[in-house]
Amino acid sequence: MLKREINIADKLKKGKTLLLFGPRRAGKTTLLKEFARTAKLKTVFYNGDNYRIQNKFSQTDIAELAKMVDGFEVLIIDEAQNIANIGRSLKILNDERPKLTVIATGSASFELRGQVGEPLLGRKTTQLLYPFSLAEILNGRQDLPPAVVWQEMRAQLLIYGMYPDSVLAKNDQERQDFLNELVDSLLLKDIFAYQEVKGSDLLFKLLALLAFQIGNEVSYSELAAKLGVNKITVQRYLDLLEKAFVVFRLGAFSRNLRNELTKTQKYFFYDNGVRNALIANFNPLDLRNDLGALWENFVINERLKRRACSGARANQYFWRTYAQKEIDLIEERDGKLFAYEIKYNPRAKAAAPKDWQAAYSKVSEFKIITPDNFLEWK
């Protein structure tokens, strides 16, 4: 088992509920079971997928709720979005048992956030858990230097992603089997369970279109035309896919200069393996024509994971002008801009575009990120 960088005990605050969000099969349940096993606290663990548990916690009778937590210091509810009225139930427990620590997980933020938002206003903290980060994988391989492990595993991680089941699988066939099952059965489960959609075919077609556009701006109108629906439907479905932790977006960075794009978006997948499963392409790197897209998706994901683990705050964007001058990733943190060009070829050379230098050189740094210097990137 690889140790996660996130320490649940450090995230707990007295009198507040910890909401742990993240994709299905990213490791939330494993992380919490490990916490329950090692914490010196009396902990009870309930599965929100269980009908009996759903029935018990959907009640707002304090006497019934108390029976579920009597004698325990920590209450953990996994997949809490499946429980009706969970927000009100947790508020009642919070009011009546102020010393009880509560942890609730959700694999779809639109459902759990919606249920607990108002009832737990000011009484909750949020933590995101993504699939494994490269740092977690390297920390779990103490038998070899990090650079050697990175060289050895790079192709696997770019093709099959970083879900725990994929990373820990014995061979590539097991990885493919896991990813195909994830995509076919679990990836969109929460969307179909809680949201009105026109059918799985449309969502999967939309995901396939996004998979082929990594690193490129997305046009809602163009997607709508290809899918035979209106733009509003496309935007709604993209919002659902974001809240189900399938894709995320970067907006365009601009300080309202005349030549900068301002309203376009790029979409990325939370995991390379999921992206490749959606387009049925697990070909080795030397047979692919999308290596640049895979690398860009991987790199930007790693930055998300780093922020989630460290608690560091940063805004992320891409930058492009109408003249097609661009920078792949802009990070805005601590009052400064950090510009990154993401290239798989370690011999690639690039300089910050002149328009960028003219506008932002005094407040920005520019760097090329390749596999060769990735481990050094801070």
UniProtKB/TrEMBL annotation:
This protein is called AAA family ATPase
Does the record bear Transferase in its keywords? no
**InterPro entries documented for this protein:** AAA+_ATPase, AAA_14, DUF4143, P-loop_NTPase, WH_DNA-bd_sf
Task: Write the record's keywords in alphabetical order, separated by commas.
Answer: DNA-binding
Pfam families from the UniProt entry = AAA_14, DUF4143
What positions does the domain AAA+ ATPase occupy? 14-136
One Gene Ontology MF term: DNA binding
Indicate yes or no for the key word DNA-binding: yes
